Amino acid sequence: MARRKMIYEGKAKIIYEGPEPGTVVQYFKDDATAFNAEKHAVVEGKGVLNNRLSEHFMTGLNAIGVPTHFIRRLNMREQLVRAVEIIPLEVVVRNVAAGSMAKRLGIEEGTSLPRPIVEFYYKDDALNDPMVTEEHAIAFGWASQPDLDEMISLALRVNDFLSGVMFGVGIKLVDFKIEIGRIFDGDFQRLIVADEISPDSCRLWDIETGEKLDKDVFRRDLGNLADAYTEVATRLGVMPKKSGSGNGPKLVH
C-alpha cells in the first residue's frame, strides 16, 4: 500500500491527500495545546473522541442544510472531508462572557450576553491570532463583504444548532470557534463550515454545576481532559454510558 502524502500538520490534526480528487483525509491527534502551544501534552484517546464528536456535529449540520466539508468517517481517528480553501479568519461566536472577552472588557466570567456576538481573529500563530475587524478582512483581501456576511450567517446558524443540541443534554454552549472554507464549482464559489467542531473548539459548561467540559480543563489544570470530553460524548449518545469495565473509551459504531 502506497504511503499517503501529508499535506499539513497542525497542533491537533494532520491533513493527508485524499483518495479521490477534491478530498483530503483529516487525522485527529492526541495532542492537547494551549496558549499558542506554549502548554502541550498528549492525552490518550483525545483524537478518537474529537473525531467522533466532530462527525456527530458536522453530520447534524449537514442534515439541517448548513453546508460542511464532512463526507464520512473512515476509522476511529480519520474522516474524509472536502478539500477547501480556508479563509484565514477564525470565526468566534460568544453567548456568555468568558476567556479573552471577559479579560479584555472587564466583564465577569459567566455573564450572559444580550445577544450572540460574532468576532473574527486572523489565523497567524506567530501573531497569536489577533482579533480583527471586518474592515481589516476586506482591506487585506482575506474576505469580501459578501463573504463576511455569509460567514456571520453560517456562524449564527451553527450557534443555533449547537446551543439546542447542548441544552438538550444539560450543557451550556458558552462560545465556540469555527473555520470556513471556499469550494468552487467552475466560477461559482460556496462557503462551507470546515476544520472541526469539538470540545477543543467550544466552551461547554454543565448547566447545573458550571463544571467545565472543554479544553479549559487542560488550560486551567482542572482535571482530566479525556474524562471531560468523554462526558460530553456520553451525554450526546456518541459513547455508551460507562459499564464499569474501566477499559477506556468504547465508541459506538
Order of helices and strands: EEEEEHEEEHEEHHEEEHH
Q: What is the SS-derived class?
A: alpha+beta
Our measurement of the CA-to-CA distance between the termini, rounded to an integer number of angstroms, reads 25 Å
Instruction: Tally the beta strands.
Output: 13
Question: What is the CATH architecture annotation of the largest domain?
Answer: 2-Layer Sandwich
Q: Quick one: CATH class of the largest domain?
A: Alpha Beta
Binned strand content: 25-35%
Q: Can you tell me the CATH superfamily of the largest domain?
A: ATP-grasp fold, B domain
**Mean model confidence by pLDDT:** 93
* Poorly predicted regions: 244-248
- Shape label: globular
Instruction: Tell me the domain tally.
Output: 2
Q: Gyration radius, to the nearest Å?
A: 18 Å
Approximate helicity band: 25-40%
Task: Write up this protein.
- With 253 residues, this protein is of the alpha+beta class.
- It has two domains: 6-83 and 225-235, Phosphorylase Kinase, domain 1; 85-206, ATP-grasp fold, B domain (D-amino Acid Aminotransferase, Chain A, domain 1, 2-Layer Sandwich), CATH 3.30.470.20.
- Helices cover 27% and strands 33% of the residues.
- A hairpin with a 5-residue loop joins β2 (13-17) and β3.
- α1 runs parallel beside α6.
SSE arrangement:
Blueprint: E1 6-9, E2 13-17, E3 23-28, E4 31-34, E5 39-42, H1 46-63, E6 70-73, E7 78-82, E8 85-96, H2 99-105, E9 112-122, E10 131-132, H3 134-139, H4 145-167, E11 171-185, E12 188-194, E13 202-206, H5 216-219, H6 225-235
Antiparallel strand pairs: 1-2, 2-3, 3-7, 4-5, 6-7, 8-9, 8-11, 9-10, 11-12, 11-13
